[in-house]
Amino acid sequence: MLLPIEDGDEAIVATPVLTIVVPCYNEEEVLPETVFQLSGVLDAFIQDNLISSASTMLLVDDGSKDATWELIERFHASNSYVTGLKLAKNAGHQSALLAGLMRAKSYSDCVVSIDADLQDDLAAIREFIVKFHEGYDVVYGVRQDRTADTFFKRATAQGFYKLMTSMGVNIHYNHADFRLMSRRTLDELEKFQEVNLFLRGMVPLLGFPSTKVFYDRKERFAGESKYPLKKMLAFAFDGITSFSVTPIRFVTSMGFVLFALSVVAGLYAIIGKIMGATVTGWTSLILSVWFIGGVQLLALGLIGEYIGKIYKEVKRRPLYVIEKEVIADQRELASVP
Ligand code: UDP
Ligand code: MG
């Protein structure tokens, strides 16, 4: 029986119900190992009285084309820690994660999100829970050693964080989506209603007590990255345009600078004409026309990008569709409002 301990105004649950949310897209190769290792983690925590025995993992199948869902069903039948959610089609990592978080929220005191590929160090989860017991609502897992990632991935990731920070977006350097969140954090997150999801930028906006836990990033256990360069760039671009209007401001200031330059050039041409020296050559003319044309197209494209975002937000389409789920009975009961 779980009894909340009254501590001032806050009710701290002695042994919280933890749900580990794992988005899975075509992960049949790693899933057996992931389930095995996460079950071990839950076992150990329950034994050490860190979490309630009602804790589980929630595997979210993000419309996989391989046997991921069949595996989840099979594990659910034999392993009481395993619950699953099947999305009707591929919604993308962020949406799949949100689907899991929002489902788990109704029956969990805290939720840990982690990728299926075992790149993040499971040992850090224990520290997450310890921090949660200390009263933190959000615990960010921060990679301190990324040597397992390719040089290219590290360099692009670093450039991305620097760019985001320089634009005034508050994200944690080297933190992806490996984190713990309390139930009230998830309740607040639900209010955001954003269609252009960038969770690692949204969570710091909440402002709840938070801390970091450092860990070493490992290689993918098996299978290939589901984030090829194209998807990664799109994600980075989405992150920037969803969180900052600095690029538009930059374009505006560039417009001013170009305008000022063209005034100077115009004056120069007029003075040259008066003084009797004609402005020679059409090369410079054509070049400047092309240059201005290029800048204008760039600016239009950027503005279009923001308008596209507004368009998506206005339509308010659901981010994911849940096709079916396998969740333990007591949790189904707990989630009834
Ligand atoms: N993922 C997902 N939907 C997608 C792409 C990826 O749910 O459309 C999941 C994937 O199964 C994994 C996590 O998101 O658990 C991170 O993906 P991955 O490890 O391939 O990315 P990387 O670590 O290479 O950035
Ligand atoms: Mg990975």
UniProtKB/TrEMBL annotation:
<dbReference type="Pfam" id="PF00535">
    <property type="entry name" value="Glycos_transf_2"/>
</dbReference>
<feature type="transmembrane region" description="Helical">
    <location>
        <begin position="283"/>
        <end position="307"/>
    </location>
</feature>
<dbReference type="InterPro" id="IPR050256">
    <property type="entry name" value="Glycosyltransferase_2"/>
</dbReference>
<keyword id="KW-0328">Glycosyltransferase</keyword>
<keyword id="KW-0472">Membrane</keyword>
<dbReference type="GO" id="GO:0016757">
    <property type="term" value="F:glycosyltransferase activity"/>
</dbReference>
<dbReference type="InterPro" id="IPR001173">
    <property type="entry name" value="Glyco_trans_2-like"/>
</dbReference>
<dbReference type="InterPro" id="IPR029044">
    <property type="entry name" value="Nucleotide-diphossugar_trans"/>
</dbReference>
<protein>
    <submittedName>
        <fullName>Glycosyltransferase family 2 protein</fullName>
    </submittedName>
</protein>
<feature type="domain" description="Glycosyltransferase 2-like">
    <location>
        <begin position="19"/>
        <end position="188"/>
    </location>
</feature>
<dbReference type="GO" id="GO:0005886">
    <property type="term" value="C:plasma membrane"/>
</dbReference>
<feature type="transmembrane region" description="Helical">
    <location>
        <begin position="250"/>
        <end position="271"/>
    </location>
</feature>
<keyword id="KW-0808">Transferase</keyword>
<keyword id="KW-1133">Transmembrane helix</keyword>
<keyword id="KW-0812">Transmembrane</keyword>
